[in-house]
Amino acid sequence: MGSASSLLDENRANYLKGHVDARFNEFSTIYKKQYFLAFLSQVQDELQHHKEQHTQLLKQKNPLESGRVLYEENVMFFEDGKRWKHRFMVMRANYILECHKSYKAFIKGYPPLLRVVPTGGTVFTSEQKYMEILDQCCSFTNVKGDFVPLEESMPGQWPVYLRLPYRMDHYFCLYKEDQQKEFISILSDCIRHQNQDFLKKNTCEVKTFLKALQFYRQKKGQYESWDMLIGSDVRVLANLFMGDLMPYLETELLPFLKTRNRRRIWFMTMEAAYFRMNKHLMERLNTLKEECKDMVKEKEVFMRSDMDQIISSRAFLEGKLKAMVAEPATKYCAEHVQPYLPAVLEEVMVPISVSFTEARQLSEGKMQQLCEDFQDRDQREELQQALFKMSMANLQSCYEKVSELSDHIQELQQSFNYPVKGLQNSTEIDIKQLMENVEYTYELLLRKALEDTSINFGMAIQKASSRVLKQFDYDSSTVRKKIFRDALISITLPSIKKHLAPSFKEELPKFEQHIFADYSNFINVENVYEDVLQQILEKEVLLVVNEAASKKKYNLLTESRYNFSLSSLSSTPPNSPGCLKSSSNPSTALPPSPLLSHGLKASRTFTSELEQEMKGVGQSSLKSEDAQPNTTLSQDLPKFAPVTVKADVGQNKTLLDECVDVVFVTADEKTTKQTATSTNTSAETRPKLITDASVSSGPIGKVTEALQRAATSRSTEANVHPAVISPVHVTSSSGGEAELTAPPAGEKDNIWPIAVCLPIENAAGNKIEDADDIIKKLSGSQQIISPERSSSEPVEEATPLDCVQEIRDLVVEVTEIEIPQSSKDNEENIPKMLSKDHEENVETFVSVV
């Protein structure tokens, strides 16, 4: 007696099976209840059209096929605990390490000699550190040569030790340091994915399993997080039940172990028991899942028909529980949790943010190197190779920063017992995924730039790099804030539940009376109770995380700093490599008129004629002998926004999709051209006006009804910016400069021009000017007198303001325009977006007025 097969005989195997069945039956009762709730939540999301929002800007590749080979290399492997042999190691996209006899056997398709699933594994390169961990697991012998290879007997200088829980360890040896680093990187990648990939799935089965496991452990009084929550559902249950079985195995088996190879036999026996337990649990769990699927199929129609009543009943129960739990939970949270949250966040935030910063610097350096090396699109093959190397970047330096998380959290273990291994693995996977997204997005942008031969490739690659880094900053901040929120809840919530359990554990069953019998399968008191506790905690957690983001700690970004939509940045912007062609018409780059959003229409023919009339007036006014250039008007005029009029030229054909025909008047104009006489405009060329009863026919020297309506609306709606119509009087001062003021009292209302203006936020005063302020500015001490006519001019020549009277006749309707509350910057940037052509039109318009 003494071998693994003899120690685990039939009697002990039957005890093992009975041990598993007893615990699994208890677990299955909870699992069935949680499966109903998870399926109900899935149906509710389907009925209410809840979809998971994609909040990242970088493009993401489709997942690789599980059979895709990611690594292959000849490695020395310590086989059967006896000798070193050359083996061909292969890692596929399923993150299982395969040990083949040789490369030739792999090419021929022979099955591997061994498959290693390194769930929960730990990698060591030092024999001393490995032996320290090994002695903690089994301290009954200190003989390391019984199954651990001696360092002096290794064929190479670069060993790798793989420690696995409840299983035999594995040993590898490589001849070069670079090979060792690459192999460790691949092996560590296998471990973190095997640990977390199943738990990250958002399926009904995974949600059910995690919740059932949580309630099963809480019934045993275990509220804290569990460091063996790794791998698939079968492996997690095996880890759970194996921990309960270990005292029995040590008591029953250790006395029968031989002195020679004692440790080796012990690990082989434990591995045999673990694998047998895995096999039995897989059968039981698959059967349980099929039973649950059949049960919910029978109830699915009832769920859908009574969904509203189920939700209402659950809300009623939540209100009852909240009334009982809210006060003590809030008090405990305020006294024992909230004071620690900033410190916990700081300890978690420092190493994680540093690791993401390291990843950003690595990406920036790789892209900068590509920008320097590839300025010519003819180097396609070299560029593809460089992009492939970029995708295979070694992230070990980033992972080392994350590994410091255990040292930071260790200081908080006295208050919160939290294993950081799961958080560490999850963060490392997020960093790797983000780096893959950077490489893939960058590759897509460069591919577009290569296809378009009309653009400068050097400029395109620079713009692509800048764009990808900006998207990285946003995605990094989004991912990290989610990590911090989840971590703070996972660290602190168990302490709240453990503290309140003695007070409310016996009270919870009494709330079953508030659930209708027909809905008892779809509402669970314990789930609602925990949701209430989590909601109370989440409020405090969100405050702490948002405060850190508002202080811009570690480049965390607040949502208010991004006033764009995700779709706008995920699409190709105008200045990206895919859209680098500049239009020959500068006016096409202007944004659409803000008036278009209010349903205003204008005839393109009419606006063209109006522009021609204005240009004609400007040209004729230059012929005046007494014309004075550089008339200053910006000091007396507020900021203006575009104004459009509605006219009928037979038919209103199109909207003003572009701003080509819209007249802008801005306060940025430093000088204006001289006002002079105008040529007569033929009445036949005037467009026919659309009469509107709402337009006032009173004297123009008074404030119009439109102005009064605008002022009244300003008092009720702060965000409405009214259009203002005010008469102006042009005079010349003693110095010869033209000046503006209100017309003299008693003058006829049909000989004075009107100035149409839309006040926008005053940058200097930081307020919106009222109509009274504008009139006060225009009615100052300056007198504007028409320039003296030359003695040589005919007596019957038109007055200088005849042309303005014609323009006034074209004004039909004054429209109040509400500027969106997007941001103050958008309002202030309207004048800056004008092209040179529009600025010339503005100057012409001001000179006419």
Q: Could you please describe the fold and organization of this structure?
A:
By secondary structure, the chain is of the alpha+beta class. It has helices at residues 4-7, 10-47, 103-107, 127-137, 177-196, 204-219, 233-253, 262-305, 307-337, 341-373, 380-391, 396-403, 405-409, 421-451, 457-504, 525-550, 566-570, 604-621, 705-716, 771-778, 802-810, 824-828, 836-848, and strands at 69-79, 83-92, 97-100, 114-116, 122-124, 158-163, 170-174, 720-721, 724-727, 729-732, 738-741, 754-757, 761-762, 767-768, 817-818. A hairpin with a 4-residue loop joins β13 and β14 (767-768). The radius of gyration is 39 Å and the shape is globular. 32% of the residues are buried.
